[in-house]
Design a protein that fits this description.
alpha+beta, 44% helix
């Protein structure tokens, strides 16, 4: 028995729509599986590099504060010392002379982002332990003479606390102050 042509054509269109829908669903599921695979593969890489990214972010925040220190010293026309304290805090002191002057005004303090104690600015004792000669936990900028004398350099090391416990500095970030104008470089 012959079926009319229009009935066969309707059946073909119905099955074609079902086939297209099935192929689209298969493509969506396959795409989601591939995306999940790459996401799961990226987790160890992100976990390994996240402390370095956080220390770079903190180095950027500290460099902004150092630029603010230089601007304040020029505006006040007096040397200003910036000390890094524990728990992600720092303080500014207006002093008489840069290397070891007495404080003329009470210190003002602030915070840099240390991500809830995950990061630390290396103190002088920690820097000596890692044989870092130029590392410092304080910076003094004189508007006349610049960074603590001519041709001097300072390095502020921001390291993850867990890396310090494991005696490694490969994920630490460095804020480098070069020359008397204290040109800032982040590494």
């Amino acid at each position: 028995m012959d079926r009319p042509l229009d009935v066969e054509w309707r059946d073909y269109e119905l099955y074609e729509r079902q086939r297209v829908r099935k192929n689209r669903n298969r493509f969506i599921i396959l795409s989601l599986v591939v995306l999940l695979f790459f996401t799961l593969c990226a987790v160890p890489v992100v976990q390994e590099r996240l402390p370095k990214w956080k220390s770079l972010h903190a180095a950027r925040e500290i460099s902004i504060e150092l630029e603010h220190l230089k601007t304040m010293a020029i505006q006040q026309k007096k040397p200003i010392r910036m000390k890094f304290l524990a728990d992600g805090k720092f303080q500014y002191e207006i002093i008489e002379k840069c290397p070891a002057g007495a404080a003329l005004q009470p210190a003002t303090s602030g915070d840099w982002s240390n991500f809830n104690g995950e990061l630390k600015v290396l103190s002088l004792a920690d820097a000596h332990q890692f044989s870092l000669k130029l590392a410092s936990d304080e910076v003094c900028f004189d508007p006349v003479f610049g960074l603590e004398g001519v041709k001097s350099s300072r390095v502020i090391v921001i390291a993850p606390v867990n890396d310090l416990a494991n005696q490694r500095l490969d994920r630490a970030s460095y804020v480098i102050l070069l020359g008397e104008s204290a040109k800032i470089s982040i590494n």
